[in-house]
Amino acid sequence: MSTTKRGWTLSATALLALAMTGCSPAPAPGGGTGEAATTITELDYYADAQGSEAWQKILDACSRQTGVKIERQAIPAAQMLPKVLQGASSKTLPHLLFTDNPTLQQVAATGALTPLTDYGIATDGYYDSIVKAGTYQDKVYGLAPGVNGLALMYNKDLLTAAGVQPPTTWEELKVAATKLSGNGKYGLAFSALPSEEGTWQFLPFFWSNGADLAHLDSAKSVEALKYVTELVNAGAASKSVVNWSQNDVADQFVAGNAAMMVNGSWNLARLDAETSLKYGVVPIPVPQKGGKPTVALGGEVGAIPATGGPTQQAAGKVLACVLAEPTMLEWSKAHAYVPSKVDVAKKFGEQNPPMKAFVEEVETARSRTAELGEKYPKVSAALAAAIQSSLTGQQPAEQALAQAQQASGS
Amino acid sequence: MTLTAGRVSPGRRRTGYAGFAFLAPVLLYVVVFFGYPLVANLVMSAQDYTVRSFYTGQAPFVGLANYAAVLANPLFTTAVLNTVLFTVGSIVFQFGIGLALAVFFSGRFLGSATLRSLLLLPWLLPLVVSGAVWRWMFDQDHGVLNALLRLVGAPVPWLTSTTWALPAVIITNIWIGVPFNLVVLHGGLRAIPATLYEAAELDGAGAWQRFRHITWPLLRPVTGIVLMLGLVYTIKVFDVIMVVTGGGPANSTQTLTTWSYALSFRDFAFGQGAAVGNLLILVATGFGLLYLRSLRSTLAEAAS
């Protein structure tokens, strides 16, 4: 009895303390201007510890610079679109929104976004692909401070021990991955989840081979899926790829269970933290020697919903600050992204050797929604299902892709 | 009865209002939290509801087109079959194991109470935690289950094969559901008078005969309730499947619930997602009515 009582008092004190810290006036960022600061709300999905901290620094800096107070909310990536749609229907959208670039089309299609030209934000100097990703019906609704893509990361120690060079072609990748497999370890790890994540990981193979999303059942597409399926069937990659998220893939790589992995630049900070791990990064291997890989363009675009009033303009100021070159560089350094302006990216690549492969790839990267616009999610889902079907041996690649084409067309 | 009815006719109006006032909170609750979502879902299933509709609030009426599209989808048969297998597989084993454990624990022995409360653990853990742990255990290369199975030389590709993934999620759900069955059935067993067993024993009945002729028939009302509740709980399971397999690989664990979610939030075909949801509600309501009927007959049995 007495212990319970003490427990209650303790938690009551804790609550009180919490409430008090909640009440204490927070130092106003920027302050000093004297006038009442405008407050805007911001929504993003940098919910992991490292990414969240890096993003918070960017927002803090822009809050100081513009004198606009920012109330930030970070949610898991999977909840982003449902949350935005909910906000759209109840007219409670955040003033500033950072969302994955292929979902921008969906959000813009609701009619809830305002074109960035309203805030004097120009698209000069950006990579074409990122501008395309942010364009819906000829108007630019979103721009990203940094972009990313997939590359092949390899464990230097494991490759040296096996006498294998980092592969550059499909054939080399297959030989290397097979040689590095055995004893419960695998040469290659990638993610083939039945979601956007799986499609995004397959697209570098799909596009580099010359296939296009409007024709999922083309010979080039079948060839790419067959290649990936053979990697799994030959034991060069685990059958578990159908259940691995990209985080799981990174786990396998860090644990030494996979000698190479297909993954994004945002993992570099984590790999650097593993002091015993020596890794290298090369572009995704291509079908034929001398070719250039075409990876899918990743990264989050900032957009401003039509919320009306002066806060909307304030959000515009903050977004302009986030997109300014110094912020761009800072964000890219902190989160291992590629700056989304061509000149800034080139400089950045020269200063950061591990990022070089990513900068090279971004030049030829493609926006996932450029071709299909709002129809992309449906096609992506059909393609992801076909990948799973082929990898699990449920259907041969031709049949799986023919079915996907049918599903995405209807 | 007849007497009162004849006498109080002038005050009848007032009592009618008073009765309605007593009913109002419940009615309000049902309308706001049950009626409105249900109707909204029905309306949505008859509309071409897109992402644009969320902002504009407008969606064209398409009649039964969403239902037709869902029924024509090759995934429909898969989802229905998986839902049936998942529900039946889960309930048979949850109930069987739960009953066996309940009978086992009805005998008093050292530590029986402690063990019984430990068995409640699966029920107390958040489903996402249980699901994530099972996902690790099922891992093909490094999972503990395959480490054991490798000793006998037969590792199973749990979550990577389209044949084994469904059994894997069923196993997970059985583990989660056993405690509920155990607790309710154990309560039912305690209500059976011990004298009956003593009498049967004196008449020379063995353990099986005692179970067959005393426990089973006297436990029947409780059994009915457990099975019916289990059915309604299991048919709508979503989180366990989402965490363990996400409906994959290659849709081999897609049930009506996960498919409804995928249609709405992956394909943005909200009308079709709502249609699948409504079909599910229809099935669950059917079983719910069955449950109410069995409850009524049980009460009648108890009263007689």
Tell me what you see in this structure.
The complex is a heterodimer of chains A (410) and B (304). Chain A has 410 residues and is an alpha+beta fold. Chain A has two domains: 141 residues, D-Maltodextrin-Binding Protein, domain 2; 188 residues, D-Maltodextrin-Binding Protein, domain 2, CATH 3.40.190.10. Helices cover 48% and strands 14% of the residues of chain A. In chain A, the strands form four sheets. In chain A, strands 1, 2, 3, 4, 7 and 13 form a six-stranded mixed β-sheet that branches. A four-stranded mixed β-sheet of chain A has the order 10-11-9-12. Chain A has a two-stranded antiparallel ribbon with strand order 5-6. In chain A, helix 2 links the parallel strand 1 and strand 2. The N and C termini of chain A lie far apart (66 Å). Chain B has a single domain, classed as MetI-like fold (Orthogonal Bundle), CATH 1.10.3720.10. With 304 residues, chain B is mainly α. The interface between A and B is medium-sized, with 35 and 31 residues.
